[in-house]
Amino acid sequence: MQHRALGRSGLRVSRVCLGTMNFGTDPQAPTPEPEAHRIIDTFLDAGHNLIDTADTYRGGTSEEVIGRAIARRRADVVLATKGAAPQGAGANHRGLSRAHLTRALEASLRRLRTDYIDLYQCHVPDPDTPIDETMAALDDFVRAGKVRYIGCSNFTAAGIISAQWAAQRAHGTPFVSLQANYSLIARAIEAEIVPTCQEHGLGILAYSPLGSGLLAGRYQRGTRPADGSRLAQWAAMPSPMARAFVTGLLAERHFDIADEVTNVAAELRTTAPTVALAWLRSRPEITSVILGPRSSDQLTANLAGLAFDLPETISTRLNAASQCTVSPAANGQHHAT
User: Fold this and answer.
1) Above 60 in pLDDT, residue 213?
2) What is the largest CA-CA distance in the chain?
3) Measured at the alpha carbon of residue 154, what is the angle toward residues 202 and 56, in degrees to the nearest 5?
4) Potential cystine with 22: which of 30, 43, 64, 328 (Cβ 3.0-4.6 Å)?
């Protein structure tokens, strides 16, 4: 199993990252705890090491499930979590302030049953908190031994530069990673964010590699998302951003790309998810691809897809079919990771 350095750091992570947004203990959790444990064991036994979660996933129970699952294998895991999401009704219970991040980190450490986080990430930007305050707080976490490395998620190119400059001014700890929405139907990061990450030493962890299921054939052109599906849930949210994301994702051009992926899969006698994942793995700018399986069988199938080698002619064909996709709603960063 291949591993890569995460950005400009000495931390080596697997080319595949296990996303755990589906893990939880509540009855509505897509992946209940026993199956989550099987997924984690399958993932680690296959030689992968990067597991990603967040304090907001399933009300924090994703972290609890992971903490119990890796208790005896902690040294084998590069454990990543994220903070910034609301953790209470108070004005200081959200965002990237020192006050909130300090509380959020301590709560994550308790839920994960660990003394340290390998990669602690800012889940979303916070325009109300000076970036110098955020980076100073994160540096303090590193110096205290509670965090090993720091990263961000959903940041713009300008936000990344501001954060790295703030760390440099304070002789502190810089970001080593960015989580970004990236797939055959979401390539907007190639314009500014990828070059910025390369210049400023951030590895890229790609989430939504199957375009929220569109590239896997879960949604059909001209048909509303099925009740209970993730897109149906987002479309029903009061947030205009969530609804705009769904509308942008279900654009005609994206279905054209999904059709081309399906055609390629038929020609290669494989599946559409395999083609989409194999294309993403071949991108040199991507350090690790985040998979969010609901079952161990789904994980096994996705891992096989990431091991599939696309012929160069096919990669060129997929690039040509998808390279002009620049829809802000569907290709911009969304906050579901």
Assistant:
1) yes
2) 55
3) 115
4) 30
Nearest to 278 by CA among 39, 44, 16, 49: 16
Given a contact cutoff of 8 angstroms between Cβ atoms, the answer to whether 54 and 82 are in contact is yes
Calculate mean pLDDT across residues 284-311: 95
Coil, helix or strand at residue 10: coil
Element (H, E) at 157: helix 157-169
In a domain, 247, yes or no: no
Taking only the tens place, the pLDDT of each residue in 224-266 is 777 777 787 767 777 787 788 788 888 899 999 999 999 999 9
The domain containing residue 288 runs over which residues? Answer: 3-213+278-309
User: What are 175's two structure tokens?
Assistant: 């970001």
Q: Look at residue 125 and tell me if it is in a domain.
A: yes
Q: Does position 95 have pLDDT exceeding 80, yes or no?
A: yes
Percent of the chain exceeding pLDDT 90 equals: 83
DSSP at 310: P
Kindly report the number of other CB atoms within 10 A of residue 228's CB atom: 7
**105-134 pLDDT, tens digit each:** 999 999 999 999 999 999 999 999 999 999
Quote the CA–CA distance of 291 and 50 in Å, as a whole number: 11
Calpha distance 204→178 (Å, rounded): 5
Residue 261 lies in a domain: no
Residue 18 in any domain: the answer is: yes
Asked whether 163 and 152 are in contact (CB, 8 A), the reply is yes
What is the number of domains present in the chain?
1
Radius of gyration of the chain from its Cα atoms, rounded to whole angstroms: 19
Cα–Cα distance between 120 and 123 in angstroms, integer? 9
- Residues designated catalytic: 57
Provide the CB-side half-sphere exposure for 124 (13 A, CA): 16
